Queue: 2 jobs
Job 1
Amino acid sequence: MQQSIDYTQYSRQPTTNLNHIPGDKGLPVLGHTLEFLRDNHALVNRGYAKYGLVYRRRVLFQNGISLLGPDANQQVLLDSEQCFSNYLAWNTVLERIFPNGLMLKDFSDHRYHRRILQSAFKKPAIESYLQPMGQHIKEGVSHWPRNQTMPFLPAIKSLLLDIAAQTFLGVHLGDDAEAVNKAFVDAADASIAIIQRRIPGTRWARGMAGRELLETFMRRQLPNKKVSDDLDFFAQICRAQDEHGQQLDDQAVIDHIIFLLFAAHDTTTSTLCSVAYALAKNPQWQEELRAEYAALGERIPSYDEISAMEKTGWVFREALRMYPPLPVIPRRCLRETDVLGHRIPRNAGVALSPLFTHYMNDYWDKPKQFDPERFSTARAEHKRHSYQFVPFGGGAHKCLGLNFAEIQVKLFLSLFLSKCELSVAPDYQPKHTLIPLRMPTDGLPVTVQNRR
Ligand code: HEM
């Protein structure tokens, strides 16, 4: 069993030695990059139709292997032989903006940090966020325009940023609000910058400046946070200890919090956009969900009441099935291994596809149809294979915030749908990008109406 890895033994670029894997080179130089950026789902479907569940492709100037379906998901995510590195896969993209994030760590180092961070995700902490989160949602939604088209994406993004400032940082940003929010958005946007050079005016330069501002802001708060008994993520991670009573140093705390903000923000924004779109297209489900909230009246629901919202849970999962925020999960192979009968060489870049898996006819009935009841106990379609539903990944790196994300989405829906109806134009065709995350590219125009 491999515990610590000498990463210097691996070249920064994944191996190009993949000719024994079925596949093609795509366009000269660019490979399959254009299609990957334009419509990754179509690219994967085409690859599967031509070559099967394992094939090679070249995107963003890197050669790699697509490994499709639940069996490949299981082998790579569970990784019982410790063959697949997160660090080598994610670090090239995230190391300078989000260094030392949990998702960039491997094996024993990862386990150590994950155990410390886990304490911040326990029920009492999440319970303590509900009232302030609920108030923010009620207040934010009350300002959204009624009876006219409005872009849902910027509205929900800004609402979630305000909530994150409170739940993650535990601060009322006050005068700093605009600067901190902008710094965060710039840092997150820089993770997809193709040119990572600090040239003034570029996405990368704005992102690096944003990262620095966030660090300075958090370093200023650290002394107070360490002695506070607040329950926000920042305070809890400052106080968290390992089994020997050892706390994380200041830089590690800052790196973890900035990464958590990043891991939480765009994923939840993407999910709420998908849920909003699906409910606007299927208004009968808005009614189904309202029936679940009928007993609440104007109240902000408790943790237990939210957990009991069964149909809201189905809608959340169905939106994540059809529109997973992370359509691709990358890994780098540390030593030669075998997946689905194909030899995967050392230092090969591999990519799993939640999106492809979520539409496989072998595991889902009519997968193109929005049908939340497939997640009901009676039907339980998602249980045909333990790795067929993977919006949160799986194994050691399974999303640490999945429960928090579900609670937040359910809280939003219960407060929003109790007061409002949501619609899209009858002929509306959604436009979105899939890389690096699924996100509407037209802002998702919706109409909000007060319920009569
Ligand atoms: C619906 C929303 C979300 C989705 C779809 C999502 C998806 C994912 C996925 C697919 C991974 C695994 C990546 C990999 O294996 O390489 C992951 C990891 C992670 N997520 Fe989430 N996420 C969501 C919300 C959140 C939230 C709200 C937080 C924090 C509050 C969070 C924190 C993390 C962290 C810390 C990791 C790294 C875990 C590790 O490496 O041990 N996520 N997420």
Job 2
Amino acid sequence: MAYRVLIAQFMHETNTFSKLPTTLEDYRKRWLIEGEAMVPRFTGTRNEVGGYIDSVKKYGWQPVWAGAANATPSGKLTKECWETIRDMIVGAAKKAGKLDAICLSLHGAAVTETEDDAEGALLEALRGIVGTDIPVVATLDLHANATLKMAKHANALVSYRTYPHIDGYERAAQVAALVQEALEGRKKPRCLLVQPAMLEGADHGRTTQPGLMRDLLARADAFEKEPGINVVSVQAGFTWADIPYTGPSVAVSYEPEAEARAKAVAAAMLDEIWKRRNESSSDYRPISDAIAAAKAGVGKDGPLVVADGTDNPGGGGYNDTTPVLQALIDAKVENVAVGTIFDPGTVQQAIKAGVGATIDIVLGGHTDPSMGGPVKAKALVRMLSDGSFKNDGPMNAGVETSMGPTAVLRIGGIDVVTISNRIQTIDLQVFLSQGIDPRTKSVVVVKSVQHFRAAYAPIAREIVLVDSGGICSPDITRLKFTKLRRPIWPLDGVNDPYAGVRA
Ligand SMILES: [Zn+2]
């Protein structure tokens, strides 16, 4: 008899400081797919669901496809949104009859109007149906704010080991291999989690250069070779969440006989995160530095890539702040491509006017004008489209994405990809699908803090990460935490990583 394995995805990185609630409509814009319709959508892709689809074939499982839900990071999920997605997955588990295992693709930093720990609540609900005897294993984003509840109800939590995240497929394959061993009775995995009294750490998980996160992962790799240690996952955490569980953590999946060793492994990892808490590779600079680099690079090969990291929609940024665009206009920089500005109203205005028309625009800056108001300018409508494309990768290779109705607007020497669905600029197709070749531009602006590097670093002449005053500011003193566990580093005078650790 083939093993019956339920597979589901629920992804969201919730920025609780965002004023924009996350609704079912936001999920539909990315994907909200019920049941086995998730299979054709992700077959051949390099994300976690693609990994599970291939694993089902590899191990000959009888799959129960519960559904897949993913939305661009934004504010708390509405009650209706959360309950609909939860009920889709939990309902599938109830209907499935006897199950032998559950494999999930979770983010680990979802917050709803009613749940500070949505993934913990989902895992608990699933456990309530299937009991404690079958393996329930989940992949997590490297930026999960993982919780003791998640660890209690999972047999393993397996986080990405790359940032940019290009190993979703591999992590799902790792989950599936562990589940298969458990199904065959060769393993009995359990999971433990430790979380230091730290709001941020592990260099926010950056793996593009040698340093702390790569060192941590090398240690995790070595620990995983020990007998009885199945998985050692490092979650860097997602800072912009006012919940008790925000911050880095370490999850260890282990065999019952290795429990003491697993605790020692987790403690060793946590100690290193704590000792090296001041190490950061982030290099935010003022917009004026980007303008100076743009002017200095005129005529040189390859674009200057300006990363507008504090308005990164991948961290809940509004995707519509304008200070970088305004500065480029003011400085009369030419041969620029900006991707993207979220402004569905201006897109509709452009659609009405048609390609070739010149229109007076009031672009972007609408969500929170205190972060820089709209750009007022004359713009030529260069191209209109439905904004859909298939990612080239390496991140999300093969996955279909939609920016919604999209207009390319030219302001002076600047092409602005103006969109109707918020989306982080990860893939070159954000521009290529709009008739713009970023490799031929002098300056390319991306709304991203780190993920853009996978596709854009290879074409960039230079990269400048700017702080434009967006919601994802690295200055955490701007954030007002009310639910966070305290005391916590670096907000409070903490000398002990175990201070205030929740039991
Ligand atoms: Zn992440």
